[in-house]
Write the structure tokens for this entry.
Amino acid sequence: MFLIFFAQAAFGPAWYQGLMAVPGKVVESWHHLLGGQVSAADWRQFGTLLSHAFLHGDIEHVTFNMLYFWIFGALLVELLGWRWMLLIFVVTAVGAGISHVIMNREDVVPMLGASGALMGFEGAYLGLATRWTLPDPHVWPIARPITPSRLALLAVIGVSFDYFSIMNQQDTGIAYGAHVGGFTAGLLLAALAAPRPRGRGVVKR
């Protein structure tokens, strides 16, 4: 994602502007699909529900997202393996995009960033913690004595801020709906479908 960001900075928006999710355009393509008039351009619009997660607005945006990607992504790899981590990323990125579109159907402002999928990682960790007793995390910079319950609580607090921002209709340029959608998708996927996590001391609650 850093390489993609550097390419964004080097070559400008011309090559990637069509990869950002624009709610109004996605909704228009959805109507085309329902009407049986879907085209290749419409399918490209649907593809932005995933591709937006690989793009970022500035160096601060990508740096902080990649820090959380490292923390929760590494935890999910440790608990479920890299295939499940990638699956959770894809599912929650799409879930974040869909949630943002639903909440902003007529918006023509493009959305980009991996934060919805990263909230999906947090939701997935919470989903695992509700089903299993997890081993203490030891991924830098989260190391013992932080317990899984405290880490799961951190995820709940984070998504609560997004929820209240939506309820208060705050306009800060942040896609809060994408955060909530990604978190919910990760929570449901891990709580309903994920296999038994790896590690010593993992028992069903």
In short: The chain has a mean pLDDT of 86. The chain has eight helices and two strands.
